[in-house]
Design brief:
The complex is a heterodimer of chains A (304) and B (250).
Chain A lengths: L3 E10 L2 E11 L3 E6 L6 H8 L7 E6 L14 E4 L11 H11 L4 H10 L15 H13 L5 E5 L7 H16 L3 E6 L2 H5 L4 E6 L2 E7 H8 L3 E6 L2 H10 L4 E3 L5 E4 L3 H11 L3 E6 L4 H9 L11
Parallel strand pairs in A: 3-7, 3-8, 5-6, 6-7
Antiparallel strand pairs in A: 1-2, 1-4, 8-9, 10-12, 10-13, 11-12
Chain B lengths: L8 H12 L2 H25 L11 H4 L4 H17 L6 H8 L3 H32 L14 H26 L2 H13 L1 H8 L8 H6 L12 H25 L3
Helix pairs in contact in B: 1-6, 2-4, 2-6, 4-7, 4-8, 6-7, 6-11, 7-8, 7-11
The chains are: A alpha/beta (304), B mainly alpha (250).
Chain lengths: 304, 250
């Protein structure tokens, strides 16, 4: 099984503790969102996992083994770290051939992942001519090269256009559906909550949250429904009977606090009130995240 | 050193593609040949027959006149071959494919040494033969005493300069810095140190290494001892680079 196990992992840089006694698992078959403000220790944790940085204490293993002990590691673990890393003077194809050769990955995979990442037409262009979005795609192509069971993606949506973001989201969901372990870091809660099954949140190197996304949303978003109806009066009366208030919002819509769309839908159906639009609102998710990590950001506006 | 640290064919192939696919590295390797053979031939054609010793006091060393320039290309080759790893976190990407740092480093060094040796040998032979073709009555042949030794030694010397630079680049993690230090070093310091401190200059890597191309040994360093001294410098630099590579976080 491609389970990532982080145990009491700690990293100090001088007197600064960047990763602070972390313990959590990342399981196969789902996308795990790895969240935290800048400087929370996400990238360092990933680098510790890859053996790029030596831990002060603790262990990080993949399928029970340290990354540095893996034979042909690209066949087990694909990583996207820094999209600026590839040598600008090389072509995209050569960059991937170098990685493929080192792990005896057949050259055919190079063309396959270039195709999969949507940069096949730029395969023979020098990387220095690439936009940030194309570099991200090249990094993802490199991560997919060895058809690995584990993927570590550090801020993969950085620099991607909206189409690219949808592409990477679908890609990650697909990889998880195939039973792979997908760990993806981000500092954006709402974006991550839209595709991650599970959330791990760090603040100042410490584990703050390790929970399924749905549970986090239930626990941290106040319930509110937004709707449009052609018979506001009857709906208002029906809701009032159950102790809820219909509050007018902008452009003819209404909101109801403390209830979910499911309940409003059932109620409207019982009463025969036509609903033209009905949705749960989770505007407070980002707020909950900010509250959670408040004072734990390395740099925050107004902090002394 | 365990078996996990030894270079393997796939990793050597990967390192070869790294060199082959970057213009800056391949360019400096080509310049080793171009500068050494080209400048020697041009100079020989221009002034070779003017008078005896026009190209240098030692006729055999003079047959490799262009190596003064070719060694700069060799330094650039060693530096650029390693420097790519230390820009923008490229090393992290390399380590995701080859996590054992010793294996990665040794493979790189083996490929730099192999290419340096091959190009060095071809350069040495072509430089000697083409340069001497313009020397008229002063020309030396491959059969002359020390000629074959000098041809072989010049190639090894170019390889050693590339390795010295490669080791130092891994140590300081900057090709630019190494070139800024080494190039003036081989161009200027030998003259200064040679004049100031009686014999110490002879043990500098370039002066010592060039003894292998001399017809008449200069002081106590014979051709092979001189080359061995140069090799020692390169080995120390490579060891320092290896130590830095193993110790530092990527």
């Amino acid at each position: 099984m491609n389970r990532i196990e982080i145990r009491e992992l700690t990293k100090d840089y001088g007197t600064t503790r960047v990763v602070d006694y972390l313990t959590f698992d990342v399981l196969p078959g789902r996308v795990t969102g790895f969240l935290g403000p800048n400087g929370a220790g996400k990238s360092t944790t990933m680098r510790l996992l890859l053996g790029l940085v030596r831990p002060t204490a603790g262990t990080a293993t993949i399928a029970g083994r340290r990354f540095t002990d893996l034979q042909d590691p690209l066949r087990h673990v694909g990583a996207l770290l820094d999209p600026q890393a590839p040598h600008g003077g090389r072509t995209a194809r050569d960059h991937l051939l170098i990685l493929a050769a080192a792990n005896s990955v057949p050259d055919g995979r190079v063309d396959a992942v270039l195709e999969q990442s949507g940069i096949a037409s730029a395969a023979r262009r020098r990387i220095k001519t690439f936009s940030l979005g194309m570099r991200q795609r090249l990094g993802i192509a490199a991560a997919l090269l060895g058809d690995p069971g584990v993927l570590l993606l550090d801020e993969p949506t950085n620099g991607l256009d909206p189409e690219g973001i949808i592409w990477i989201r679908d890609l990650m969901r697909g990889l998880a559906a195939e039973g792979r372990t997908v760990l993806v870091s981000s500092h954006l809660m709402s974006e991550t909550a839209s595709f991650a099954d599970h959330l791990v949140v760090l603040g100042q190197g410490q584990l703050l949250v390790d929970t399924p996304t749905a549970e986090f949303i239930d626990a941290h978003s106040s319930r509110r429904v937004r709707l449009r109806t052609s018979d506001a009066d009857r709906l208002r009366a029906a809701l009032a009977g159950r102790g809820f208030r219909l509050v007018p919002a902008e452009d003819g819509r209404w909101t109801v606090d403390g209830i979910q769309a499911e309940a409003v839908g059932a109620l409207a159906a019982d009463e025969g009130v036509p609903l033209l639009e009905l949705s749960d609102e989770r505007s407070s998710l980002e707020q909950a995240y900010l509250g959670l990590t408040a004072g734990r950001a390395e740099f925050s506006a107004g902090a002394a | 050193m365990t078996a996990a640290a030894m270079p393997t064919t796939p990793v050597l192939r990967s390192e070869w593609i790294k060199i082959r696919s970057a213009r800056s590295i391949l360019g400096s390797l080509t310049a080793v040949f171009g500068a050494t053979a080209g400048i020697t031939a041009l100079t020989a054609a221009a002034i070779g027959t003017a008078e005896e010793g026009a190209m240098g006091a030692d006729p055999l060393l003079a047959a490799f006149y262009g190596i003064n320039f070719g060694q700069i290309a060799a330094i650039a080759f060693g530096a650029t071959a390693l420097a790519g790893e230390f820009r923008n976190g490229a090393l992290a990407v390399s380590l995701t494919a080859v996590p054992n740092r010793t294996r990665l480093y040794l493979s790189k060094v083996v490929v730099v040494a192999g290419l340096g040796f091959l190009v060095g040998q071809v350069t040495g032979l072509v430089t000697f033969v083409s340069g001497q073709a313009f020397m008229g009555e002063y020309a030396l042949g491959l059969g002359d005493p020390g000629a074959l030794r000098a041809v072989f030694g010049s190639g090894v010397y170019l390889m050693l300069m590339a390795l010295l630079s490669a080791g130092l680049t891994a140590l300081v993690r900057s090709g630019t810095l190494v070139m800024c230090l080494l190039i003036p070093f081989v161009l200027i310091v030998p003259f200064v140190v040679g004049q100031l401190v009686g014999g110490a200059g002879r043990f500098m890597p370039d002066r010592a290494g060039q003894a292998v191309m001399r017809m008449n040994a200069e002081g106590s360093l014979g051709p092979w001892t001189g080359l061995a001294v140069a090799a020692l410098w390169s080995i120390v630099a490579l060891a320092a680079g290896w130590f830095a590579m193993r110790r530092r976080d990527a």
